[in-house]
Amino acid sequence: MTGAIPDAAGQPNKRCQFDMTEKNTQWLSKDDVARLLSDPSPEARAATTTTIAKSFDVSAFNDKERRIAEDIFRLLSADAEIRVRQALSAHLKTNPDLPRDVALTLARDVESVALPLLKVSDVLTDEDLIAIVRGESAAKQSAVAQRPQVSEQVSDALVDTGNEEAVARLVRNEGARISETAYDRVVENYSSSTAVTDSLTRRLDLPPAISERVVAAMSDRLHEYLIDKHDVSPDIASNLILQVRERAIMSLLDNGSSDDELDTLIAQLHRKNGLTPSLLLRALCTGDLAFFERSVATLTGLPLQNVQLLIHDAGMLGLESLYLRAKLPKTLYPAFRAAIVLAVETDYDGGSNDRERYVEKMLERVLTRFPDPTMNISSSDIEFLITKLRQIAA
Prior knowledge:
Oligomer: single chain
Mean pLDDT: 75
Low-confidence stretches: 14-25, 371-382
Largest sheet: 2 strands, antiparallel
Radius of gyration: 32 Å
Helix content: 55-70%
Shape: rod-shaped
Number of helices: 22
Strand content: under 5%
Order of helices and strands: EEHHHHHHHHHHHHHHHHHHHHHH
Distance between the termini: 82 Å
Structural class: mainly alpha
Number of strands: 2
């Protein structure tokens, strides 16, 4: 038996002829060909397209059969009936043997045809995806952003689209590789987008410096909300936001950060006057001596090694000199000194809730440091310090 797949007008196509006496076609049966010859309707073409697409396996074909199959897919990808093209895309989207030119044809088709394939097909190259991101619809951009794996180059193109939904989906996609420069553009261009910032906060591998910028952007919005919607005074709102931001910054470091990540974060905070005394004291009270040391090195302009030697000076004279050079408030020096002594001597115990026990021990040590007869501190200063330390512990 011989036959040919009808074209969109229902006429036999000479490129797609079959000799059913040959070995070919567990994937295209005599019944499939007979149905197309007798009933070239859109329904019949869509049904047969589903059958042959689901069964397409190059490893079972010889060269002639493979070429015939590819010609059939090229013909079907140009079919005038959308349901035929939808069936082709839906059932070939994960097939690694789909010819690239057919994949591109389907990817450039209407969205109902293109989106399933754009989300998963490995046949499309980065160059193909970038061209689609730059020249196709917002829905197609969002589909590309949801792929199981997205390269840095494709991510860069998506970030530059201005498509808020696509960028939010990209950032939420843990399979997307995003460069730090791309993250910078996301924070700069989409900081007012709740969808994007929410996605950023959920990303597990976000660099600490980028996380801090996200926290800052969200804090600014919260500050405005507290003043506008809850009639909170600007000073009280600023104090609340400062506590939230500093607590968030410390939480960024809980999972551990490399030296380079720490340096980048600290330099960023310093440029924005974010290395506040309360942040540094909070770092000490949670046991993050490395953050404190590097921050003081930045504030003083001294080499880190010299700063570490002065901080660990048993006589504490070096520490006091360093503290004053960093222009930290004299009133807080006793608290810093007590916290540093404990931070140097003590580490987390490794048990459950060890962080909470460490902070409790730290606060107990620091608070019992007052009043100190060797320090000329007024009762109002002591009250201020206790308030600050309790805020840090909250």
